[in-house]
Amino acid sequence: MTRRARAMLCALLLALPACVRAPSPLTPDRVGSVGLPHRGTLSRAASLPGVGAGFARLRKDERSYGTAGLVGAIERAAAVVARERPGSVLVVGDLSLPHGGRIVPHLSHRTGRDADLLLYVSTPDGAMLTSPGFVHFGPDGLAWDPRGQRFLRFDVEREWILIKTLVEDDDARVQWIFLNHALEPMLIDWARAKGEPPETIRRAEEVLLEPHPGGVHDDHTHVRVACSEEEVREGCEPNGPDRAWFAKGEPRPEPPSTEELVHDVSEPLADLAERGL
Ligand SMILES: [Zn+2]
Q1: Among residues 91, 140, 179, 258, which one has the fewest Cβ atoms lying within 10 Å of its Cβ?
Q2: Backbone φ and ψ of 220, nearest 5°
Q3: Domain for residue 267, yes or no?
């Protein structure tokens, strides 16, 4: 189908989901996180600052935009880790571009609902370090840092605080945290050994996943947040599961019954009739 023919069809069939994935003059009410993470756009985005309480962006570029929900969730979680382990810095990779859309080399990251968070690292002896960048951890929890010419250890303790805060944050609506299948058990075992709340561990097990396809995620986590009810009304297309712990929006008022509608319409008419008008 030609682009012109498709545009005409969309104009005729505005209700078709395929036609409303991007804001356009024909869809002025589509704002915010619009479409799907791998096919969509972003407007009215929030930007994660280059540096904040307990976090710093890896690169100073414009790949720092996301929904207010995602940006707030990262800021809150990083601040908690820094409060519990002073000196901690969460190094943040790409979110989305200011207006979303395609962003190489990612498949998703197009609607402001995805963020790459580098892993917390320590020396092999356990001394806290700030991540030097993307380093690949093996199933032994060690990574070779070619720039620093040293081994680094996956800092399970601090990573767990981050994951715990994200999944306990009901407003964050964290749907997935993509992470390597060999690193996930280290976090879960640590949480169990510490006696963390079973509900928190259950949530972590639900969201932690090594996606196929999608890469092994042995050098960062990829956090995906779900559309809120309000965002869905504005064009965000839900995909994937709604977690049981997500905060629900304000309950929508029940629509008036037929009797109420008839009453509302007939009462003024009765009033007019009584007054002989
Ligand atoms: Zn990612």
Answers
A1: 258
A2: -170, 165
A3: no
275 located within any domain = no
Give the mean model confidence (pLDDT) for residues 255-271.
59
Burial, 275: exposed, middle or buried (Cβ in 10 Å; 0-12, 13-18, 19+)? exposed
Asked whether residue 184 is domain-assigned, the answer is yes
- 197 in a domain, yes or no? yes
Instruction: Give every CB contact of residue 79 below 8 A, 6+ residues apart in sequence.
Output: 52, 53, 54
- Distance CA(16)–CA(237), nearest Å, equals 12
Distance 264 CA to ligand 1 centre (A): 53
Residue listed under structure tokens 């930007």: 47
Whole domain around residue 121: which residue ranges? 16-233
Q: Looking at residue 212, what is its pLDDT? A: 82
pLDDT attached to residue 29: 74
Ion ligand 1: residues, CB < 5 A: 116, 222
Q: How far is the CA of 222 from the centre of ligand 1 (A)?
A: 5
What integer pLDDT is reported at residue 10 of this predicted model? 42
Mean predicted lDDT score pLDDT of the chain: 86
What local confidence, expressed as pLDDT, does residue 275 receive? 56
Distance between CA 140 and CA 142 in Å, rounded? Answer: 6
The CATH number of the domain holding residue 71 is 3.30.1380.10
Cβ-contact 22, 102 below 8 angstroms: no
